[in-house]
Specification:
By secondary structure, the chain is an alpha+beta fold. Helices cover about 40% and strands about 15% of the residues. The chain has seven helices and seven strands; from the N terminus they run αβββαβααβαββαα. The chain has a seven-stranded mixed beta sheet with strand order 3-2-1-4-7-6-5, with helices on both faces. α1 (about 5-25) packs parallel to α6. The N and C termini lie far apart (about 55 Å). Bound molecules: zinc ion.
Length: about 220
């Protein structure tokens, strides 16, 4: 059985991240989902279906074992539960997942445009943000579509067409910050691309830069 003190601490952390996502307008209503891995058992804490990010409490968050067994709960498990469980199974380095339907990023994904990692921060923290298409039957992405992208251990963020975003991390804070960076990057990309179009600029006018490591290497030459 998972340790009760750990469960309480992880639930409180999840409530913190959910409130932050709600306050930042990354997630309204009861869509999206977030979860965190327990270290005292092969299990996670996750938001159930129908509970808003701003309404998470110690009483409604659920404990689910990695084999899919749900600890007794009056709530229905989330539609996103299976892809969360699968990501924890295939990536031992992932200890938290924040999945939001944040509007700027989801707008890009729904236009079929990959969000460019265009800022110093996105290059360093994310590097690549794959765009995952809908499932072949046109339904929402499941673990069948999502997990293959995350088999690459370098992938820490992805965007789901017509759906939302996924940020993962070794801690909940890291996963939460990625959810915020994804949305912020989409917003910045939109402003950049709108201004470029208005001013008749093309990709050839864009500044070129890499990571801080690249810059240091270049300046020491
Ligand atoms: Zn979703």
């Amino acid at each position: 059985m998972p340790d009760q003190n750990e469960i309480d601490a992880k639930k409180d952390a999840l409530i913190w991240a959910a409130k932050r996502s709600f306050d930042l307008r990354l997630q309204t209503t009861a869509g999206g989902n977030l979860s965190v891995r327990l270290s005292s058992a092969d299990a996670i804490v996750i938001k159930p279906s129908g509970v808003g990010f701003n309404e998470c409490t110690r009483d409604n968050l659920q404990i689910v074992h990695l084999d899919g067994t749900l600890e007794p709960s009056p709530f229905k498990p989330s539609k996103d539960l299976d892809f969360h469980l699968d990501l924890y199974r295939i990536r031992p380095d992932i200890n938290a997942i924040v999945h939001c339907h944040s509007p700027w990023a989801t707008g890009y994904a729904s236009a079929g445009i990959e969000i460019p990692c265009l800022t110093v921060q996105t290059i360093e923290k994310i590097g690549r943000m794959p765009l995952i298409p809908l499932s072949p039957n046109g339904g929402p992405q499941t673990e069948v579509e999502i997990s293959p992208y995350f088999k690459d251990p370098k992938v820490v963020a992805a965007v789901l067409a017509n759906h939302g975003t996924i940020g993962v991390g070794s801690t909940l804070t890291k996963a939460q910050y990625l959810a915020e960076i994804i949305e912020e990057t989409a917003h910045i990309a939109f402003v950049r691309d709108t201004l470029m179009a208005a001013h008749g600029r093309t990709a050839a006018d864009l500044p070129n830069f890499g990571t801080a490591k690249d810059a240091k290497a270049a300046s020491s030459q």
